[in-house]
Amino acid sequence: MYIYNTKNKEIMATIDLRQSVLAYVKNADNRFLKLVNALAESYQEDEQEDFVLNEKQYKIIDKRRESHLQEKSQSFTWEQVKQNARNAAK
To answer: How far apart are CA 65 and CA 71, in angstroms?
Structure first.
């Protein structure tokens, strides 16, 4: 896996990035280590949680679906969606 750094126009392999981060951690003060730890814990929690909608979000989706099925809302084909996105990007 590679990460492209557009600012420096260089490609850094994941292993190089890992070594760079480890160098920061090796020389880090307590404040930096707490930040890195919080970020790592947050990342782990995000990876482990499934995406779940709450009741309010389900109601919104149901309302939009009903509106669509009753043809009360505007619908677009996939081609129209792509064209709208291209036009918006111009």
So the answer is: 10
Do 85 and 65 share a structural domain? Answer: yes
Residue 58 CA: distances (Å) to CA of 9, 23, 67, 83:
44, 46, 14, 29
Best CA proximity match to 11, nearest among 22, 25, 1: 1
| Residue 30 Rama label (left phi>0; alpha psi -120 to 50; beta) | alpha
| DSSP H/E element including 1 | none
The phi, psi pair for 54, rounded to 5°, reads: -90, 175
Q: Which domain holds residue 65?
A: 55-89
Stated pTM of the model: 0.38
* Per-residue tens of pLDDT for the chain, all 90 residues: 445 555 444 555 788 888 888 898 899 999 999 999 999 888 887 766 667 788 999 999 999 999 988 988 888 889 999 999 999 988
